[in-house]
Design brief:
single chain; about 325 residues; alpha+beta; Beta-Lactamase; 5-stranded antiparallel sheet; 11 strands; about 45% helix; about 15% strand
Length: about 325
């Protein structure tokens, strides 16, 4: 029960600080602590947005892909079992094999052709075998959200998996609402700018800065403290001249050609882009003053695991002690 409570608490912490895309990816990672699955399809229910369905692959190296939710409502797909299951936003987890569902619909050549016209091609591309649905009641919750967890191997979801998804869903849906609200607050309140907002300047192709405010130079110094540069350092300049985006430990730099010079944007890399969900949780607790053993007891792991996670996140962030970790989190507006 304590481990479950910790997962819920971490989910709400992510909602406060992560960007919308980061939140979905990290939330899926938290779900995997309780349910084994190969990927997920998540619907935010916001139909005004043409890309409100996110397909997230479980592997760390796989990118997130979005597909239009409106495709699930097209006339040729009204009788497709997977599309119908998603559209209905079921009120309780539903377990079943995709292969079996589709096999039942292959009674005629015409129906077979219809099924291949929409979501089925996507499902086959993913190699789906078993899935589990859950979602909000559209009569009670607006926008109604839903999630599909899938497995690519012929291993059915168990009743315990359904129970876990049922218990976590209300928190996931509420956390998404909080995340959307916090994101809007950061966008529409210019007076409440965070320290990690990006800065823009005009630079020459040789890297010399022609025009920029102090924040621009502060962000460059965050990446290269030993240089405190008033120019774009050579390591970044080489990447930019190749038409790519430079991504360092602390900042991301990109530019576009404008009026004979380069309009350069420096964006600080958010802590949620660097740390895994569990590393983020450990970092917050350690910076707040908790010991290795206290964190281990709360998370239900050994203190050796916590030590290893701290050592790993120190290397990721190029930090060396608790004080520098606390300063880093404070600079990214993460409360401890």
């Amino acid at each position: 029960m304590q481990a479950f409570s910790t997962t819920v608490r971490d989910l709400y912490a992510l909602a406060e600080y992560a960007s919308p895309d980061q939140f979905l990816e990290r939330a899926i990672s938290l779900l995997q602590m309780w349910i084994r699955f190969d990927g997920a399809i998540f619907g935010t229910g916001e139909r005004s947005n043409p890309q409100t369905v996110t397909r997230l692959i479980a592997g760390d190296s796989a990118p997130a892909v979005t597909v239009p939710e409106t495709v699930l409502a097209r006339e040729p797909l009204q009788d497709d079992p997977v599309a119908r299951g998603i559209r209905n936003a079921p009120m309780s987890p539903s377990r079943g094999g995709i292969r079996e569902l589709y096999r039942k619909k292959r009674s005629s050549k015409k129906e077979h052709q219809v099924l291949r016209g929409g979501p089925r091609s996507t499902m086959e591309e993913l190699g789906l075998c078993h899935l589990m649905f859950h979602g909000d009641d559209p009569k009670k919750v607006q926008p109604a959200r839903w999630i599909v967890l899938y497995r690519q191997q012929d291993v059915r979801f168990a009743e315990t998996d359904a129970a876990c998804l049922h218990g976590l869903w209300i928190h996931l849906s509420h956390a998404l609402s909080i995340n959307r609200a916090r994101t809007l607050e950061r966008i529409i309140k210019p007076g409440a700018q965070r320290d990690n907002l990006s800065a823009t300047g005009v630079v020459h192709v040789d890297g010399q800065v022609e025009l920029a405010d102090q924040r621009f130079f502060d962000l460059l110094e965050r990446e290269w403290p030993e240089l405190a540069p008033d120019f774009i350092p050579e390591a970044a300049l080489k990447v930019l001249t190749e038409g790519k985006t430079y991504r360092g430990r602390q900042v991301e730099i990109s530019w576009v050609r404008q009026a004979g010079a380069q309009l350069c944007r420096v964006r600080p890399i958010d802590v949620m882009e660097v740390l895994t969900p569990r590393e983020f949780v450990v970092a917050r607790r350690f910076a707040a003053g908790m010991s290795h053993k206290q964190i281990a007891r709360e998370l239900g792991v050994s203190h050796h695991t916590v030590r290893n996670q701290l050592a790993h996140l120190y290397r990721k962030l190029d930090l060396h002690n608790k004080a520098s970790l606390a300063q880093y989190l404070a600079a990214n507006q993460v409360t401890t």
